[in-house]
Amino acid sequence: SVNPDLASERQTASFSVEKLTALLDGGAEQTRIRRAVVEAIESDPVFSRENQYFQTQNERYEAAVRKAVHLQKKMHEMGWTENGPEYKYIYRALSGDVAFLLHRVFMRSISVLGSDKQIAKWIPPATQHQLIGSYAQTELGHGTYLQGLETTAVFDIATQEFILNTPKISAMKWWPGDMGRSATHTVVFAQLYIHGKCYGIHPFIVQIRSLQDHSLCPGVTAGDIGPKMNFEHIDNGYLMLKNVRIPRDNMLSKFCEVRPDGTYVRQGSQKINYFTMTTVRISLISDEVLTPLMKACTIAIRYSAVRRQSKLKPGEQEAKILDYQTQQEKLLPQLAAAYAFHFINDYLQKLFDRGYREIQRKNFDMLPELHALSSGFKAVITHHCTAAVEICLRACGGHGYSLLSGLPSLYTKILASCIYEGENTILLLQTARFLIKCFMAASTGQPVPPSVTYLAAVKPEKCPAKKKSDFLNPDIYTEAYQHVAVRLISSTAAKLQDLVQSGVKKYDAWNQCTVQLVQAAKAHCHYITVKNFAETVEKLETKAGIQRIMKHLCDLFALHGIFSNTGAFLHDGYVSAAQMDMVTASYLDLLAVIRKDAVPLVDAFDFTDKSLNSALGSYDGQVYQRLYEWAQKSPTNKMSPAYERYLKPLLHNTLSKL
Amino acid sequence: SVNPDLASERQTASFSVEKLTALLDGGAEQTRIRRAVVEAIESDPVFSRENQYFQTQNERYEAAVRKAVHLQKKMHEMGWTENGPEYKYIYRALSGDVAFLLHRVFMRSISVLGSDKQIAKWIPPATQHQLIGSYAQTELGHGTYLQGLETTAVFDIATQEFILNTPKISAMKWWPGDMGRSATHTVVFAQLYIHGKCYGIHPFIVQIRSLQDHSLCPGVTAGDIGPKMNFEHIDNGYLMLKNVRIPRDNMLSKFCEVRPDGTYVRQGSQKINYFTMTTVRISLISDEVLTPLMKACTIAIRYSAVRRQSKLKPGEQEAKILDYQTQQEKLLPQLAAAYAFHFINDYLQKLFDRGYREIQRKNFDMLPELHALSSGFKAVITHHCTAAVEICLRACGGHGYSLLSGLPSLYTKILASCIYEGENTILLLQTARFLIKCFMAASTGQPVPPSVTYLAAVKPEKCPAKKKSDFLNPDIYTEAYQHVAVRLISSTAAKLQDLVQSGVKKYDAWNQCTVQLVQAAKAHCHYITVKNFAETVEKLETKAGIQRIMKHLCDLFALHGIFSNTGAFLHDGYVSAAQMDMVTASYLDLLAVIRKDAVPLVDAFDFTDKSLNSALGSYDGQVYQRLYEWAQKSPTNKMSPAYERYLKPLLHNTLSKL
């Protein structure tokens, strides 16, 4: 039975939840396929996550391996293939709780970086899991800056082998997934040396464990890096190599080859390869970032509709916490952000698909823009969504702090997305470099890529809004965002130029501007997100109330961004103080409007109870019953030796006399 | 041997680290006592935290009980007493990793709420640990709003007993520490009923487990609430009561008594009791909030001085990440905040000591102000420090994400401080209520408490700064903070009045202003923190470079606050755009200045390696060696059954054919 406090929220939905779900999925047919995958996974007990919050790191790892192995069977049984329409829903249905994800990266890196001969040799046994691969790039002392990697691969002409070494402790490979305990092979990135000359970083296939008994190969030291904030199910590993010899054929040689005589040959264009790396940042947004935020919103908003606390009006029953303005102000902007980022993700996916087609046609013009967009949006979306999940967690008070709420796990996992695949600050500075370059080009009349043409356009000096409802006009707020982005980019470009002209070295000048460059890059991405949301709403069909509620969310997202960054808009007087008060008033009004549809808006994300795995967020809202039932299963409710050993002697005063 | 990259940071300290440590401790003698306590605790293997990051919740609980029992011996052995000068350092030296903390709350509540007879009966056996107490207030369905608690205590005249019940699941006690597995007794807060009439919430001593065999008493259901984001060592528990009868004497009756005939009698003033609750919020700041932030700063700043990444100047060695402006902008404001909050904590402690003396003299005039300050500062400091620890964690990249860095545990623990002892938003609204009241009083010329007299003073309309160095003048920035606080309080008061005058009900008007009321309360606390920091610096002795570096930190704290909230200062033109650019320039300049002393500034916090328990933060900076050594001890580097069960059949292709 559904908690009446939750049921009543659904009776008054102003739109069709099912239609909105279909919109998010990209059509009703996609919804059908997704649900079928979820049903198949969730009805299979091997994939259960029921006891997840009670398990140790070892238990989580073992379960992930079991699931990965079982998944092979399941896919065969269900007729799912890597190219089929179901494939993209599998990982999400498993909530990522599965091993061998790096095995896929291992295979992809061979497919992308390997010669045809290498692909023919390695891909078939890898596909059949006759070996398990990993991907060993990051070292203890080196992450984002790949040129700094210290592992060496020296070519030995005499034996036609590469000799791999970890010259010092900071060169130890550290973090690669599946490597701590599972992998038999890995792609190692190392500095290539031929005749004492360094040719830079290259990828090598190295076997690390026996295929017979899984013991470490000679010269190999490897293991698990130990406990982390999350990802307990993954055996992130370390790897040291001491005079490990591999055949010359094991250097992945699509782009660079070492001939038997030691000649080093470059071949082909690596541009498509760079593009592949770039797309990884976009591809992670959906499953690793948006899904967790949507789950967190679902949990926190459903809970806020059943949790009652204090009285809003004297004499009445205690109020739902969702009725408090402060609670709305915590949660509803996060809900709006989930939609905003869903739509910008759609936009980026389409843009990258187009980019891929262009690049296949050997047209590389879009590459700089795509690189800048993928860097900036990876950083902005992971940062924003991580903060949003934390807000959802805190907004649930004490119960949010229990692992049983599901929120701590969502938070500790999404947090990692700010670090992996490029640390966010470094990525934003890459976007900023592109923006400064484009700004300089635009200001001298040169052509610039489509996403930055706005840098060249002439804009009004002042926001034209006259009353608070004007701030519900997308043109008004989109232009305000655009104005701020232009101002931050142009003023930082000017500061850079001033510094250099005053004699500061270019690299010093750059460093002295980085705090402001980061702000400029964020403003650029924020502007594009708002613009895209507004344009998306414009194109929606007006039926079933969808466009109306999406318009409200778009307004909320935009106005929340202004309300939270008032200084950026007030700075040069583009928005006046009186206008800012209108923004605040419009923003606070919107909270009360969207609050009415808050539960239907999270229902539309269409998560099953099993996928949420939350005592607070289930569809029926029976929060307290579930917390109690789940807590009873905790291993902490088993007998503890602490009683006989410590408590009994203490209470019976039989400890050696104090 | 100390990592040379860290050693060089210490050679150029501009001040005496030892002198600063003594200043933080409140004198060299205090430093001596603290170090002696730390030495005694850390040299005792029972108190070791060495394997903490590898332990399960059960293992953590058992260790905490073992330590709590051992601590009794240790205190006796060392001659430490509850009133001695060493006492306050013990908990900190244990990093809070010890059981029976609620036993102290149990005893304190009896001391404060019990009659002399009850104190005489319960305190001696509790002191000797012949029983273990807990404190059962929070329920599944009720936290901060105490009037809403649902547990009932019905007086039965016939037997002269109270009959305690948990009428429904939301009334179950939930969260009390030490209750899940350890406690034999607890203080239960329940609605008192006599002859069918409810007299509100009262405290009752209830035995929940047998003193003989620790089995649950008849009618009692209790256990552990399961896994949490941290506090694995504490057995937070649940408790259901079914017709549990306790003698009439078990109602704590200093302030209210039920006579044998069922007459209900109030006696004495509860004001000193309210004051005790208020002081708890202040007392937690030091150990639960400031110490974790200081540890996080120590770890992140030392790591940033030894971690090298990318090149700042072409041709040079990779740069220390602490040399990047963006890294400085992440970490140094958190360091400044640690000092700012240390000094405001000193201020609050002194104020509350004075308040205590006044209240003992039956002068309750200070109570409203102290309540407002304790609520506001608890919320502002816990919020700020939690965010700061998270920034430190992220600033260490991947290694910050490893539990071995110590940062995840610091973060997941400090996060709870935003929720316990009053949820932060609710506390800020209590401060806001006080501020609005005082503002109304001040504007009609009535007297107001000292901390809010500024609301009545006449201030300049515009910031008088002319050049960027003017923003290093504490009068300039303190007045700017004051101006913003007054503006936010007065404008929200005006909005409230307008709403009420336009016919909106008072409680609705309040709810519609809460987002802005929260901002106003924060601005008030921020202003007082800046003012207090500036005044503290003013009074420091000028020797040994201490005042100079503290002045820089004070400036940084103040300017960072403006830089991060530009809109609040720009809104009414108090600070102009040109002045804001000066703030930014001064702020960024300061980063480079303080960076030079960053490592000595964290060294002054004087944490031992054992107390930091971090592979990244040790005094010698041997980061990579320690990560590797610690990882090898992880249980994930033991044999796993996953190989024989799943990996081997997969690799050997002996799984039932796909």
From TrEMBL, chains A, B:
Q: Which domain of life is it from?
A: Eukaryota
Give the GO biological process terms. Answer: fatty acid beta-oxidation using acyl-CoA oxidase; lipid homeostasis; very long-chain fatty acid metabolic process
Task: Tell me where in this chain the Acyl-CoA oxidase C-terminal domain is found.
Answer: 473-651
Q: Name one GO cellular component term.
A: peroxisome
UniProt keywords, alphabetically: FAD, Fatty acid metabolism, Flavoprotein, Lipid metabolism, Oxidoreductase, Peroxisome, Phosphoprotein
Q: What is its main location?
A: other
Q: What Gene3D superfamilies does this protein map onto?
A: Acyl-CoA dehydrogenase/oxidase, N-terminal domain, Butyryl-CoA Dehydrogenase, subunit A, domain 2, Butyryl-CoA Dehydrogenase, subunit A, domain 3
Q: Which residues does the record give as FAD binding sites?
A: T138, G177
Where does it localize? Peroxisome
Domain Acyl-CoA oxidase C-alpha1: residue ranges: 274-436
Question: What InterPro entries has UniProt attached to this entry?
Answer: ACOX_C_alpha1, Acyl-CoA_ox_N, Acyl-CoA_Oxase/DH_mid-dom_sf, Acyl-CoA_oxidase, Acyl-CoA_oxidase_C, AcylCo_DH-like_C, AcylCoA_DH/ox_N_sf, AcylCoA_DH/oxidase_NM_dom_sf
Under Gene Ontology molecular function, one entry of this record is: acyl-CoA oxidase activity
Q: Which cofactor does it need?
A: FAD
> Which Pfam families has this protein been placed in?
ACOX, ACOX_C_alpha1, Acyl-CoA_ox_N
Entry annotation: catalytic residues: E421
Q: Where is the Acyl-coenzyme A oxidase N-terminal domain?
A: 16-132
| PANTHER family with a match to the protein in the record | ELECTRON TRANSPORT OXIDOREDUCTASE, PEROXISOMAL ACYL-COENZYME A OXIDASE 2
Family the entry assigns:
Belongs to the acyl-CoA oxidase family.
Name listed for the protein in its UniProt record: ACOX2 oxidase
Source organism per UniProt:
Furnarius figulus
**Taxonomy-wise, where does this protein's organism fall, top ranks first?**
Eukaryota, Metazoa, Chordata, Craniata, Vertebrata
